[in-house]
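I am writing to request your help with a piece of structural work I have in hand. I set the record out below, with my sincere thanks for your time.
___
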Amino acid sequence: MTETAESRIKVSRDNGVTTVTLNQPERRNSLSMAMLETLSEVLASLATDADTRVVVLAGEGRVFCAGHDLKEIREQFDRHEFQLALFERCSAVMQQIVHLPKPVIARVAGVATAAGCQLVASCDLAVAADTARFATPGVNIGLFCSTPMVALSRNVSRKHAMEMLLTGEMISASRAEEIGLVNRVVDEQVLDDTVYRLARTIADKSSHTLRIGKEAFYRQLDMPLAEAYDYTAKVMADNLQADDAQEGICAFLDKRTPEWKDR
């Protein structure tokens, strides 16, 4: 069968929640150049899709994502320009997730390793089945997980990140929750119920407010304390001029449900 963008990634929509599923279980949903290009195109389209309020990122089969396609990398051993382009493309996709003006929830069933673990860490939220496992095992094959390290080290403490990176050992879902890599761990049988209940809760909010909040969250992280407060004070003052902020405050005081205009 000829590989197409549609065969690499499935997209489904339900009441404001769009699910993006890596759909190559036979390749362990690896992040080949083709997969990364398709994922980038999908994310770009969702950024401006008014019907998408929350994105759920999933993987088909028993592996969420095994990272880069090592067979593809081996075929390109003598092409440094391809290798650089691959890691730059992957880095750009991870930043697309961070900068997407919609919350992104990773639905993790199975294994997430190397760049697959990076994918989980790049999402705003992550819910994992209790059978899920995580690792940054590049050190085991002589290729340190340097780009996955960027997302990992921004989600867990330095020592926890370094332990994963230096040992390459697999950690359980419960350990991933302990160190802050995922938000929740649930029985696999209720994974979808938990993910989509969370997604619908968020989707019920003003999409305009969510966009403002997500952007501000990531921007203030790297600022000095005083600069972060100056920046977020302005964000809140500007946010207060929005229709939805004024509607939400009035609805709260009037003890009624707000009617969002998403502006």
